[in-house]
Structure formats: C-alpha cells, structure tokens
Amino acid sequence: MPLDEYKRKRDFTKTPEPSGDVRTPSGDQLFFCVQKHLASHLHYDLRLEHNGVLLSWAVPKGPSLDPATKRLAMQTEDHPFDYGEFEGVIPEGYGAGIVMLWDKGTWTPEVPDIDAALRKGDLKFTLDGYKLKGSWVLVRTSGRYPGARGDSGQRSWLLIKHRDDWSSGELDIATFAPRSVKTDGDFADILAEDNPAVWQTNRPATGGSTGAMLSSIIEDAARLKAERAQEAVEPPPAPARRPRARTTAAAGDGTPRRAKKR
C-alpha cells in the first residue's frame, strides 16, 4: 500500500503528524509543497501530489534557482496528502524536529506519463508556488545514500532548475525568503507554540552547526513564550478619558450653555 512505509515509521500516539489516507484526486491542479525541516540536520522536503499521495524528496541544501547548481534530493517514503499543510513540532522518534511550511502551490508535469518518468528517473515539471516557480527537473543518479536497500531502497536524485524567467544565479532563495508561507513565522515562532522545555532532553541535534542553531532557536522560543505569557496576564491599558465640554455663563433658566466651537 502507498502509505505503509510512512505509517510504519511513526508512532501517532506521540507525533502530531497526520496519519492520513490516500486521497481521491479532484480537479486538474496538483498540489506541491516544500517543508523546511530542522531535525538531525536542516533540510527541505519537496513533495509532489501524485495518485492521491505526496511523492517526497529530502533536499539537504534546499532548492536553488541557479541552473548551474545541482542539488542532491534523496527520495523518501510517500506522505499523505494532508501532510502538505503540516507545520509544527515532532517531539521524538522518526523525524524529531521542527517542520515549517516553507512554500506551497501547484505543479504541472512536463511529461505525458508521470509514472513512466519516475521509472526512467527523469521527471520534468513546472512549479507555481509563492517562492518557487518555473521549470525544474528531478534526475535519478546511480548513487544511493546510507540505509538504502535493493530496489525498494531510497534513491538519490538531483533537483535542477531549468533556465527560464524564474531562474537566477545570484539569488539564494532559501536565505532571501526563510520564513513560513503559512504563518510568516520562523522556527522559534513554531516552537514557541509548543513546549520548549521538551527540547532540553529530546533534542534532535546536539552538536555542530545544527545543534548550535537549535540552541539559539530554543532560547528565542522560550523568550517568545515568556513574553506572550506576560502579555496575557497584564491588564489592558485603561481607555483614555474624553475631556469635558467647556461651558459659558448660565442661560436664562440657569442651565450652563455649551461653548461654541471655533
């Protein structure tokens, strides 16, 4: 079954990830997303809707708009369609870390048969997202990364931007647009919605540049959470009092007359 591998790797009593089912396709537009995932290492998960699930590739360095740059893309298990909107914290187990919805939109195959292109290892397509647009290609290579087994193993591909109006050799899109398209938040904002304390004992990364990044994110998330808690207990400011109208001499009946506006 398409999602058996996805479900086998996860304990849904612990992870907030959607368990999901195979989706019945509707309409002509196909969904795609890129999720920025800080786990043992920072990487970007490219997901393309096909046959009711999301085909998935982990791109360690993220997509590049430079046609001369070939980015390694490691194919992983299919994900449920509902995963495409997921953003949050995986506290422990497989994929433990913080997931950000970095980009989303629709994709259009540039081949007549997607399955045949996947078997061949040459999938050309067009993306129409908030950050990624234009023509791309996924090309399978002969290399395999550690843990791959036989024909069912996870194979390595290359993600390459085609030269078009949306390509650029100068702009690093991951650095230029690092925030969530769902909330406009960063990793600290996402973690602050959860419980930063859990990361003191269940850190997905403990050393190197990734561990240092996570430590900084935890500190920022704790600060944000404390600020929000303080704002919640502070009384709102009192409304400003309206000035009383000036009066002049009393009228004939003894009632003060309101001053005329000048």
Summarize the structure in short.
The chain is an alpha+beta fold. It is built from 5 helices and 11 strands.
Mean pLDDT: 83
User: Main sheet: which strands, in order across?
Assistant: 1-2-3-4-9-8-7-6
Estimated radius of gyration: 26 Å
Number of DSSP E strands? 11
Notes on the protein architecture:
- By secondary structure, the protein is of the alpha+beta class.
- The protein has one domain (4-15, 29-224).
- It is 18% helix and 32% strand.
- The chain contains five helices and eleven strands.
- The strands form two sheets. Strands 1-2-3-4-9-8-7-6 form an eight-stranded antiparallel beta barrel. A two-stranded antiparallel sheet has the order 10-11.
- A hairpin with a 3-residue loop joins strand 1 and strand 2.
- The chain is globular.
- The model is unreliable at 146-153 (pLDDT under 50).
Secondary-structure map with pairings?
Layout: H1 4-8, E1 30-38, E2 42-50, E3 53-59, E4 71-80, E5 88-90, E6 97-109, H2 114-120, E7 122-129, E8 133-144, E9 155-161, H3 173-176, H4 187-192, H5 208-233, E10 247-250, E11 256-258
Antiparallel strand pairs: 1-2, 1-6, 2-3, 3-4, 4-9, 5-6, 6-7, 7-8, 8-9, 10-11
